[in-house]
Amino acid sequence: MSGSCGTGRGTFVNPHFREIACRFDQAIHFPNLIESSGYKARMEILEIRMEPAEKEVEEALKLAPGEQVWSALKVFYADEHPCVISYDYVSTEIFSEEALEKLKNSQIRKRIF
Fold first, then answer.
1. pLDDT in tens, the chain (113 residues)
2. Distance CA 63, CA 55 (A)
3. How many CB atoms lie within 10 A of CB 69?
4. Residue 46 and residue 74 in contact, taking contact as beta carbons nearer than 8 Å
5. Which of helix, strand or coil describes residue 75?
6. pLDDT value, residue 30
7. Does the predicted TM-score (pTM) go above 0.70?
């Protein structure tokens, strides 16, 4: 067949997969990943809000339908260039509004964020 791309032949695995520096099949702290790749890491929290958990979040956190979660939108930078956008969800049962206020005012938050 002239000009044809042909048909698929199945699934192929790149033999160099395990050598890739950035992998998404392992849990790793983003700043560590960024710094281990030779960049200066920084993280910024753009938004923290309480909202009803979406179905996928409910299932992942084993929550009852309609339960509230804290949603945090974060951006990680490598040498001041945005490289990762992260949405994190935490049950309000685990992290209270009072705990959030303490974190906002703490010296730890000022150093980390």
1. 444 444 545 454 545 444 545 444 445 688 888 898 899 999 988 888 899 999 999 999 899 998 999 888 989 999 999 988 888 888 888 877 777 777 666 654 444 43
2. 9
3. 23
4. yes
5. strand
6. 85
7. no
Find all residues with CB under 8 Å of 103, minimum gap 6, and list them: 109
First and final CA of the chain: distance in angstroms? 59
Contact 53, 24 (CB under 8 A): no
**Tally of residues, the chain:** 113
Residue 25: both structure tokens together: 């099949």
The rounded Cα 67 to chain-centroid distance in angstroms is: 21
Q: Does residue 69 contact residue 92 with C-beta atoms inside 8 Å?
A: yes
Q: According to the model, what pLDDT value does residue 23 have?
A: 47
Query: Of 81, 101, 100, 73, which Cα lies nearest the Cα of 37?
Result: 81
DSSP label at residue 18: G
Q: 53 near 63, Cβ under 8 Å?
A: yes
